Amino acid sequence: MNKRIYQYALCACLATGAAACSTQKALVLPERITVPVTSDNNSDTLSLTGFEQVFQDPHLRSLIDSALRNNYDLLSASQQVSAAQARLMMAKNAWLPSVNLALAAGVDHYADYTLNGVGNYDTNLSPNISKDQRIPGTTPEYFAGIRSSWEIDLWGKLKSQRQASYARFLASTQGRRLLITQVVAGITGLYYELMAMDNELIIIHRNIKLQEAAVATVNIQKAGGRATELAVQQFTAQLLSTQALEYGVRQEITALENQINALSGRLPQPTKRSTVQDSAALPPIVKGGIPAQLLLQRPDVQRAELELTAAKADVKAARAAFLPAITITPYAGYNAFKANLLFQSPASLAWGVLGNMTTPIFNQKQLKAQYNISKTSAYTAFYNYQQAIVNGYQEVATALNKVDNQQQAFTLKSKEVGVLKEAVATANILFTTGYANYLEVITAQKNVLEAELALVSTRRNVYQGMVSLYRSLGGN
After folding, report:
1. Which of 78, 103, 159, 306 is the most buried if burial means most Cβ atoms within 10 Å?
2. Which of 139, 134, 147, 143 lies closest to 116 in space, CA to CA?
3. Is residue 174 classed exposed, middle or buried when 0-12, 13-18 and 19+ CB atoms within 10 A define those classes?
4. Which CATH superfamily hosts domain 98-152+325-358?
């Protein structure tokens, strides 16, 4: 009967162990998105002749260098990279045995009706032991030596954790690279915006002088009886309106300088920049399709892909947690129940080793929950990776079209400004000779001011398109 009970118990233990050793299914993700590469000439290259020259302004480069040194977000990102590197170091050394120097002291008092109490009493009566070997009634214990523990990575759990840490370390470096690209693009965009405001200010000053001359002319004509007070009022109102524009532009300049200072990690101060004449040329024309290789090298795409790799490794580690773990715990050192006998070699030398295999049984639900969490995180990382590719594709496509369209619009706007300037000269001549009224002169002056400001805006959009292209290509 007892034999049958033992057989049943053994079968139950084997069944429980088999259930505990079962693991979850391997992770299977959906198919990845196929990146369409479009181009007018069916090429997979992007013609960037002269692209590097766009950012060669010495004052701009100085601002960028200052921002890369002092931007607080970048400094914080550097610390995050260091933290990820430290976690990687921990994961790399997780497979090594832990070896600790141990100094331990304790005391036990065994009751008379216990195994140790009876054994110690009987041992002390034996004639085969010396005086130093007699066990005290209240028994101290001293140990000085080395204790170790080593988990054998039989199923690759520690290896998967190391792979996940390495992928997250690389992802943190890509995150910092992404932030660098954003800082450089932000500084560059604000810089060209600032130069556009300078250009608007020059245009406003030039038009103010022209309108002041027109006011003086109409006052002379009024004195000669050739113009009315209404004409003087209209010309004066136009002059005041243009003068008011100057202060709005100055406020924009102050706001832009403060934004640049904030990105550069410094207190408000004037921003050194080139004059409008020094940067009158437009950036070179950019033509070509969307390069898939550059698109996949964007830091946000790279980071998303590395996060996906880390999530996959987490799933592998979670699956391995269902399997038995083998741990070896050796020790060696001096061991005695009297302090003065502790270092008497070889009598006090002691060593031992224990092999331990543990299999999860009652915490299967916790392990399964952790596996489901890791699996969900992997799907989330996969969808984030897919979305990063989609975002990158549309950003590059938008930036390319913006540069092309704005460059063509600039050409037409330049011609428009030339025609309107001639119209102003014609209107002034006709007005002084009596063939045009003052409203026609005012309209011509207003149109040329608006056209010149629109030309500045178009030129600024060309540069902003180049900055957007730089950002969308990940700084490449």
Report:
1. 306
2. 139
3. buried
4. Outer membrane efflux proteins (OEP) (2.20.200.10)
Residues of the chain with CATH 1.20.1600.10: 18-95+155-323+363-472
Q: Across-strand partners of 355?
A: 328
- Please give the single-letter amino acid code of residue 236: T
State pTM to two decimals: 0.68
Is the four-CA dihedral 151, 156, 160, 163 of positive or negative sign?
positive
Please give the torsion angle defined by the CA atoms of residues 58, 60, 65 and 70, in that order, rounded to the nearest 10 degrees.
140
Look at residues 355, 289, 308, 285 and name the one whose alpha carbon lies nearest to residue 54: 285
Q: Which of 35-39, 45-49, 149-153, 390-394 has the highest mean pLDDT?
A: 390-394
* Sheet of 138-152, strands arranged across: 98-109, 138-152, 325-336, 349-358
Confidence grade of residue 248 (pLDDT, cut at 50, 70, 90): very high
Give span(s): CATH 2.20.200.10, the chain.
Answer: 98-152+325-358
Q: Which residues pair with 357 in a beta bridge?
A: 326
Say how far apart CA 178 and CA 391 lie, in whole Å: 14
pLDDT tens-digit series, residues 343-382:
887 888 888 888 888 777 777 788 888 888 888 888 888 8
CA 244, CA 403: separation in Å to the nearest integer?
Answer: 32
Q: Which CATH architecture has domain 18-95+155-323+363-472?
A: Up-down Bundle (1.20)
Q: If we measure between CA atoms, which residue out of 402, 327, 317, 395 comes closest to residue 359?
A: 327
Query: Does residue 8 surpass a pLDDT of 70?
Result: no
Rg (CA), the chain: 40
Q: How far apart are CA 409 and CA 412, in angstroms?
A: 5
